[in-house]
Amino acid sequence: MPNDAATIETLQPGIALLRLTRATRLNALSLPDLQFLHTLLDTCLADASLRVLVISGEGECFCAGLNLKSLLDENGQLPATVRENMDLQQSFAGLVQRLRDTSVAVIAAVNGVAVGAGMALALAADVRFAAQQAAFHVGAIKIGITAGECGISYHLPRLIGAGRAFELMLSGRPVASDEALRIGLVSEVLPAGELLDRALQCARQIAAHAPYATAHTKRLMWQNLDAPSLAAAIELENHAQVLGLMTEDFQEAVQAFLHKRSPVFTGR
Asked: Are residues 201 and 235 in the same domain?
């Protein structure tokens, strides 16, 4: 059946916007909604020309995470089995993994409150911008389950440090946009009306580079966050650089530099 949880539109060649569109439900997601989002990602990530994916939400909320009401039966009870709950959790976590695994750069334009798995979606992005009214809530610890969900326990300490991450995850207190900027959770805070324009500006800057350069920079950054040593990180960098030197786009960049013109990259 049709699903109105989200839309994808092309903003310009190579740049797409995934927008959560159930503002009246704070963009909270049920299992069918998650399955629909996976279908949307199947389509857009299969497009070899896509370079940058921007994610945002409609209304006052970026994403409130799981739609808890969708789990209840007609008696207000939670009938799901362990297997069904695991399917739900893996579907949410799978979105996070896909954003990390793709070579497409992902920008989160956090327009409002991001709660639980919604916060996890923002953390999985490579770049985050926030509107002034945005706030980040771990959420789950307040309803009797762990704050570690959908990669939050992995991403948050790597973004803001373990000490701050422990405090936020154990207390469950919200992080307003000004604090998010101060602790490095977002790159910039803007008025709501300027948020998507800023995200698009960044997307254009990324898409202007050679596809090999951006894809492998993203891969190197994430992999080297877990590098066991400086030597291991440099080894990975060396291999990526040598492969890059063999591309036609590198040759084009050299010629453009020599002739004082802008390069025209082809992805080869």
From this structure: no
Q: d(Cα 52, Cα 14) in Å, to the nearest integer?
A: 6
Q: Are 115 and 139 in contact (CB under 8 A)?
A: yes
Classify residue 54: in a domain, yes or no.
Answer: yes
β-bridge partners, 56: 19
**Three-state secondary structure call for residue 229:** coil
- Range of the structural domain that residue 168 is part of: 6-207
Is the whole-model pTM more than 0.90? yes
**What is the number of domains present in the chain?**
2
Neighbours of 258 (CB within 10 A): 8
Contact at 8 Å (CB) between 42 and 79? Answer: no
Question: What proportions of the chain, in percent to the nearest 5, are helix, strand and coil?
Answer: 50, 15, 30
The answer to whether residue 122 is domain-embedded is: yes
Token duo for residue 82: 């362990």
Q: Are residues 54 and 102 in the same domain?
A: yes
Query: From CA 5, how far away is CA 23, in angstroms rounded?
Result: 9
pLDDT in tens, 173-219: 999 999 999 999 999 999 999 999 999 999 999 999 999 999 999 99
* CA distance linking residue 197 with residue 189, whole number of Å: 12
d(CA 123, CA 108): 8
